[in-house]
């Protein structure tokens, strides 16, 4: 897959978060897990969406949907 290590970690986080919680992670979940700020999370999600790895519904919370298969994801660190 054509993603950076950090992008891969975000994608894996989305996958496992959805698997464990039956819903997509919120921005705050990303901030806590990756120890980052809201602007960084927003920037990363926009990048992942522009590359076609995820899709989101505008104005709807927790609407992230992965568009790649589990076998294309790296291990979550």
Description:
With 77 residues, the protein is mainly alpha-helical. It has one domain (5-72): Arc Repressor Mutant, subunit A, CATH 1.10.10. Helices cover 49% and strands 5% of the residues. The protein has helices spanning 5-21, 27-34, 38-50; strands spanning 54-55, 65-66. The protein has a two-stranded antiparallel ribbon with strand order 1-2. The longest helix has 17 residues, at 5-21. The chain is globular and about 30 Å long. It starts with a helix and ends in an 11-residue tail after the last strand. The model has no long low-confidence stretch (mean pLDDT 96).
Name the features.
single chain, Arc Repressor Mutant, subunit A, 77 residues, 3 helices, two-stranded antiparallel sheet
């Amino acid at each position: 897959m054509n993603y950076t290590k950090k992008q891969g970690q975000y994608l894996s986080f989305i996958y496992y978060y959805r698997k464990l919680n039956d819903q997509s992670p919120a921005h705050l979940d990303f901030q806590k897990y990756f120890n980052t700020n809201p602007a960084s999370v927003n920037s990363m999600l926009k990048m992942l969406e522009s590359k076609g790895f995820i899709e989101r519904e505008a104005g709807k919370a927790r609407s992230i949907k992965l568009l790649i298969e589990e076998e294309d994801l790296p291990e979550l660190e």
